[in-house]
Amino acid sequence: MPDGKPAGVRCVQLTGDNRCRLFGDPRRPAVCAGLMPVREMCGESREEAMIWLARLEGLTAPVPAAKKNPGVRIRPRTPGGR
Ligand code: SF4
Q1: Which residues are CB-neighbours of 57 under 8 A, at least 6 positions away?
Q2: d(C-alpha 37, C-alpha 48), whole Å
Q3: Is this structure's pTM higher than 0.70?
């Protein structure tokens, strides 16, 4: 996908049985090749994996500026400090 794969959109490289057409191919995106799956990510079934993925997408979705809490400030960490 030349412009990247938006969240929630099925990758064009997925086969009908949910395998990657580019597995082992140098054209496979680095983000895909570098992903190390863990049990909590995959669960015991496709359904469990999709629930985990949907939750992750929700937690990492960009927050519109209007919804950000203007009262919250993030202080930079100081070396050795709090
Ligand atoms: S590993 Fe990457 S390229 Fe392959 S199907 Fe999944 S998202 Fe698409």
Answers
A1: 7, 8
A2: 14
A3: no
